[in-house]
Amino acid sequence: MKNNNYSPKYIKYLKKIKKDTVTTKIYQVLILALFLVLWEVLVQVGVLDAFFFSSPLRICTTVVDLFATGNLLHHIFITLGETLLGFAIATILGTLIAIALWWSNKLRSVLDPYIVVLNSLPKIALGPLIIIWVGAGTNAIITMCVLICIVITILSMLSAFLNCDKDKILLMQSFGASKFQILTKLILPNALVEFISVLKINVGMAWVGTIMGEYLVSKAGLGYLIVYGSQIFKLDIVLTSTVVLCLLAGGMYFFVGLLEKKVKRI
Amino acid sequence: MENYLIFDHVYFNYFTKTGEFNAINDLNFNIKKGEFIAIVGPSGCGKTTILSLVAGLLEPTEGKIMLDGESVKTANIGYMFQRDHLFEWRTIYKNILLGLEIKSKRVDADTAYIDELLVKYGLADFKNKHPSELSGGMRQRVALIRTLAVKPKLLLLDEPFSALDYQTRLDVCDDVKNIIRQEKQTAILVTHDISEAISMADRIFVLTSRPATLKCVEQLEFDNALTPFKRREEKHFSKYFNKIWEELSNEK
Q: What is this model's ipTM?
């Protein structure tokens, strides 16, 4: 019921909700500001050594410097490209494999122990093998990224497929639906919400994969910058790259969030 | 009238790792076209198994089930569940189209029939809404129309009201019975609620506990014009209730 003559108590209630969201935002900004100021001040008065801890101002100048030489954008593009590619391959391939495992009970029970082991295995242990197999370059980084994302994609999507209500499947069968029709008309649309949450998890995982890959083998990228910076003890570069990574990962998460809102509206 | 659905010495066993269970034991009955049958029995006696057998989703271990002279495996049978199972990602209209889509025979005559049903049963205004925007009773009505849209030869109702609150339940009972009567459907209702069975059916089949077989058949004599709700006010309603109650009590 819409009623435009709100009671004073209701108006008060609305105001309180609005006030709560505003104060939350203020606190969030305040924490960041406080952290940056404290960091800068502690470095300025000499409690923290700028050599080890850098400082917000030094990070700003490093960003400007790196931009000026044209390097930073190059590194960002390389890492972003690798991450997006790995993310896309892992999500698509993982979902297809999950569909195959849903389709065939035999395949699923046969492969079950392998998937469990693959899931618990620290993928980074495969690093040296990957380098030997696909070469020390971008391919190795993308492969690492895919490996880290794909297992969780398979497992999450498969459990979403299998959790579909048995009566809904029965309903489809009572209409005489084929397995393919059950998949396309029921199982897939039913798992859409789960798919979005897999995308969210994969945003985080893909960055882990790419940066780990770049630690192992790379000539460019943010992971490379971090390793390079730490080797020559230029912590300005290390922290600058880390901050840029935060922004990129946050941005990617934001886009998945937009997608989620769009899906929820359907 | 001749027999429409025939259960001829039907046995059903199912298998688990721990053993083989006889769920249905020599079940025999006949149903005439247009009849409304209610099946009651002690809980866990295999009522839903019987529906799955009729729907052709399970195959009898022994015996034969025939519908209108053909095997139930190929027959067009409508199934209604405890919950409406409407797909949230589809509009009401698209939900109702589901059966036709699966049978991939979306011909104009069929969509015309659906439009007719929508108008007749007051759903036309909700066509483009999503299931979550409808009340529980309304959703169950949509589920029924979705089933009727494919013009099934037989309608199976598996406790279709048990997920609704009591008041809605009585309303939906009237609603569903009315629609089924108007569309001249043959229907089998499975329920554990004796009064629901008496208020809706023409005949009641009482089953034994597992392994299930037919214990007795109760022919109900009510004025045809009475709605399920009105039936509950009749004198002999409680007489039937006590009789079936006793039959079931002996089974426990």
A: 0.84
